[in-house]
């Protein structure tokens, strides 16, 4: 066999080898399933937000608490990374704005974050399994597995996912010391993780702690949890419920 | 020879642009939080779509319309058309790679395969179609040089290529159906438009390849078969008209039967965002005019024929089809799908920054086009004498 023939044969054989990795599907190690995670025993973690009780100062406080703890650089440019942010009614509930509304509707702001959907399409469309749903309902993200294709961002109608256009390190170095949470590289997607790292230590998420009682965190599936009781007793909304994604973040009006 | 030097310059320029883009982590692109797919992702769709369409059309012709003879050497158009399809797929693959945020982690696709994700299938099928198209083309070229008929397994491999090409088109259509709340993508009409566009642009690409290398003219038609050009032209026309029909359907549904989100996509594409007009708004009008013009010229009797000494308008139709397809896929597709989120996000506020491609993205595109053309030149070089 000539060298040329050998190389050409190899090139033609290569396609046959491509599906081989599928064999590893027989017993793959699933992301985020390992280890002892105390919160995973919960049925469906979710959030109830008393929107009337949150003012501009509260938003600043709880956004800063989250972003500082998770090493999210400050800034509000078009390429900014956001885990939690605030928005008016028209952005929070797109398509739900009537023609004539009062000042209160126009001015009230709502905290927006990942909804940790019961039916998360972002998990389904991820080509590497970098985003996954845990037994307790938290939708997590494995930063070292993400290849940055941004399919999950297209699949998220809530705009809850951010792409690291820039390397966050430079921006973080300017704003002071970084926390223990891993700093993400540029080119990967990230989002709110309901503070899994704190739940393991038995603590509530940063935003809930900073909200001064305006946000309740707990198991939506447990009828006796504070969240469930709050939702039973009040009129509440979720974002775009018609899409059928079953968001776990509820807005009490 | 000078054009080869020009292509290599383009390649170097594109390589530098890729390095800039990669080491700035896409910050050097015109992309943003809301508009996270732009020119690069759009061109990945266009070139893989066109390449797959061309591959499918050519293999359909060679397998069913006028099967390649078992005793005669392959005709000239077989290899040049296969190379054109392969080069388009190659450009698609390069754009797909260039648009990734973490290309260094690409092998995670193989380490952690997710068959439920359509992106995974795109990443698997695209290189497969490329290798098969290039391999079949080289074999056909070699056999032609030796004046030998095609090898016995060629037909089976053509069938595999046909299946893979159709699978790639299917995976692409399914990919855009996966995104809830994005009406511009998530409607079944987009599937028809993607396939119609694949066959229109694919046929245009094949016809260009036929013109470049020439077909064997009457050699095949003697046996009572059809000339490849006739088949490709018919496919182009039908696909063009089908695309237009579904485009009209979407506009009707958006504005007559009130579909707020679809209407917002079209308004963003053609009129701009929040009173601000962008470069791509003009390009959208150009694309619409080109598509309508190509369809009108196609339907004009005699415009396509070379008969009675009149000049054929076919090259013009080909150019218009390819350019309008390119604009529609590489700008309208990503921007139309991402538009509603952007405009809803800033309702009542100042005009948001939408999307204009940065110079880095444009130079990178030049580099990818050069790379694809260089591959074309490389593939169609005559095989060594000893074969």
What do you see in this structure?
The complex is a heterodimer of chains A (253) and B (387). Chain A has ten helices and ten strands. Chain A is globular and about 80 Å long. Chain A is α+β, with helices and mostly antiparallel strands and 253 residues long. In chain A, a hairpin with a 5-residue loop joins strand 4 (131-133) and strand 5. Chain A has a four-stranded mixed beta sheet with strand order 8-1-10-9. Chain A has a two-stranded antiparallel sheet with strand order 2-3. A two-stranded antiparallel ribbon of chain A has the order 4-5. Helix content of chain A is 28%, strand content 15%. The longest helix of chain A is centred in the N-terminal third of the chain and has 15 residues, at 3-17. By secondary structure, chain B is an all-alpha fold. In chain B, 70% of the residues lie in helices and 0% in strands. Chain B has 13 helices and no strands. The relative contact order of chain B is 0.17.
Helix content of chain A: 25-40%
Sheet/helix structural class of chain B:
mainly alpha
Largest two-chain interface: A-B, 62 and 61 residues
**Overall average residue pLDDT of chain A:** 85
Indicate the low-confidence ranges of chain A by residue numbers: 24-38
How many DSSP H or I helices of chain A? 10
Taking the sheet with the most strands of chain B, its summary is: none
Q: Show unreliable segments of chain B.
A: 218-224, 342-350
Shape of chain A: globular
Structural class of chain A: alpha+beta
The largest pleated sheet of chain A is described as: 4 strands, mixed
- Write down the overall mean pLDDT of chain B: 89
Computed over alpha carbons, the radius of gyration of chain B is: 21 Å
Give the SSE string of chain B: HHHHHHHHHHHHH
Give the distance, in angstroms, between the N- and C-terminal Cα atoms of chain B. 26 Å
